[in-house]
Design brief:
CATH superfamily of the largest domain: Beta-grasp domain
Number of helices: 5
Structural class: alpha+beta
Oligomer: single chain
CATH topology of the largest domain: Ubiquitin-like (UB roll)
Number of domains: 2
Strand order of the largest sheet: 2-1-5-3-4
Largest sheet: 5 strands, mixed
Order of helices and strands: EEHEEEHHHH
CATH class of the largest domain: Alpha Beta
Distance between the termini: 55 Å
Amino acid sequence: MARPARELIRFEVNGDWHELAVEPRTTLLEALRYVLKLTGSKQGCDKGDCGACTVLIDGRPQLSCISLAMTAVGRKITTIEGLAEGNRAHPVQDAFDLCGALQCGFCQSGMMLSAAALLADNPRPNRDEIKQALSGNLCRCTGYTQIVDAVEVASGQRDVPERDERPTTRRK
């Protein structure tokens, strides 16, 4: 059986333009992880349920496991590898670390990218808006409290919790 023909596509990822030859059925997640070797976006459910594969396309959260790579032609994609500004962590990355927001880290990149997109649109969201923005990202470890706290810290609406308030899984 013959393999499907490959199509040449071009898109921007983390500030750099890439040209790839992909089969029409190639997902954006597959192109990012297995062709470009950007493994920060996780391959979780492969059906759009968990959010571990979330990337930003033109600043909007998108599930890359259910998006064909061809739909990203000419668009600007940001993965977790491109969220930092040079050598300086994005405020969301700092806040997640300071708040001990995540445990296993599998959902981390998707959570952070969804949070960054929220703060770009709404710099001072309330807790309900944060929960709604993160509702497409599942975390099986934390219970979400520290994640929502971290987004509030990143927005400047909350101070970093005192050491006694941080989860015990935080590294020292």
